Amino acid sequence: MGKERKVRAYTNIALIKYWGKKDETLFLPMNSSLSLTLDSFYTETAVRFDGSLERDEFWLNDVQQEEKAVQKISRVLDLFRETAGITEPAYVTSTNFVPTAAGLASSASGLAALAGAANLASGLHLDKRTLSTYARRGSGSATRSIYGGFVEWQMGTNNDDSYAVKIDDADWDIGMVTVIVNSKEKAVSSRAGMKNTVLTSPFYPSWLESTAKDLTEIKSAIREQDFQKLGEITESNGMKMHATVLGATPPFSYWEPDSIVAMHMVRELRQQGIPCYFTMDAGPNVKVLCRLSDSQKIQSYLTTYFSPEKVIISGPGKDIEDITNEGVYHD
C-alpha cells in the first residue's frame, strides 16, 4: 500500500475562452486561452495506490461514484501509472468546494487536484509544466488550475507542447465576484456544447480568428496593469463565445433569465463609476471581473436582487498545494 497524498487545486475562470478541441483524445484545444485562478473555489483530492483493491475506487463529496465517473479519473491515473510503472489500483477521495458541473469550473480544480495528488502518490514529482499536460488529459481547463493568478494555456501542436504557463500573480487589486444563478448540473455539457459548436456554427471560424487577437491584447493589458482594457477584452471575448453557440445547429444557450439580470446590473455599476466587467462560461452563472477593493460594493449592489449566499467574492488563487505537507507543493 502506497502513501496517501492530498492536494488542493483552485478553480479558474477563463477570460479568453477555450471553446473547442482539435484532438478529442489528447484534449488539444482549437485556440490558446487565458484565465484567472480564484481563491474561493477549490477541490481537495487524495490519492493512494493500493494493491488490496480490485479496481480504482472514487469517492466524491463522501459519495461513492458510479463506473462512468470512475472511468474518467482512471484515464488520468493510468497516465501516472504508465510513467511510474505502477500496476496497483487507486483509492481516490475528493471534496469539491465548488458546485459540480454548474459552470463554475469544478472539473478544472477537480482534475488538477487529481493530477497533483497522483503525481505525488506515484513518486513521479513531475514539474508543474509537465504536470499541466497530464491534467489536460482529464479536463482541458484543468491545465490552467495548476497555477495561480493569470494563466495562459498555450494550445501547442502535440501532447508535450500544449501546457499552461503563469503570466502574472494578479496581485494588483484584482478580484472577481461570482453570481450563482443556478448551481444545478447544466443541461448541455461543455464537451457536447463545444463539439456541436465547432461542427455546425458558421460564427466559429471568425471567433477563433478574433480570439487570437484578444489573447495578444489581454496579455498586453496585464503587462501594463491596464484594468479597463483587461475588462473590456474579457467581456467582449465571453460574449463572442456565447454568440457561437447561438449559431450552432441546433442552437442552444447556457443563459437563464437571471443571467441577463446580472449582466444588466454590471452595466449599471459601470454607469455609476465602478469599473467591472462580466464573463460567463458554459453555464448560467455570471462572473464579474473587478478591483478587489470594489468587490464588497459590487456584492452589496448585486444582493439587492440576488440572495447574499449566491454572490461570492474571490481574490486570486494560488498554485496547487500539497496539503499533506503543510501547504508546500514540491515539484
From TrEMBL:
Keywords: ATP-binding, Lipid biosynthesis, Lipid metabolism, Lyase, Nucleotide-binding. GO terms for cellular component: cytosol. GO terms for molecular function: ATP binding; diphosphomevalonate decarboxylase activity. Pfam families: MDD_C, MVD-like_N. GO terms for biological process: isopentenyl diphosphate biosynthetic process, mevalonate pathway. The keyword Cytoplasm does not apply. Its EC number is 4.1.1.33. Residues 177-311 form the Mvd1 C-terminal domain. Residues 9-164 form the Diphosphomevalonate decarboxylase-like N-terminal domain. InterPro entries: GHMP_kinase_C_sf, Mev_decarb, Mev_diP_decarb, MVD-like_N, Mvd1_C, Ribosomal_Su5_D2-typ_SF, Ribsml_uS5_D2-typ_fold_subgr. SUPFAM superfamilies: GHMP Kinase, C-terminal domain, Ribosomal protein S5 domain 2-like. It comes from the Bacteria. Belongs to the diphosphomevalonate decarboxylase family. This is diphosphomevalonate decarboxylase. It comes from Pisciglobus halotolerans.
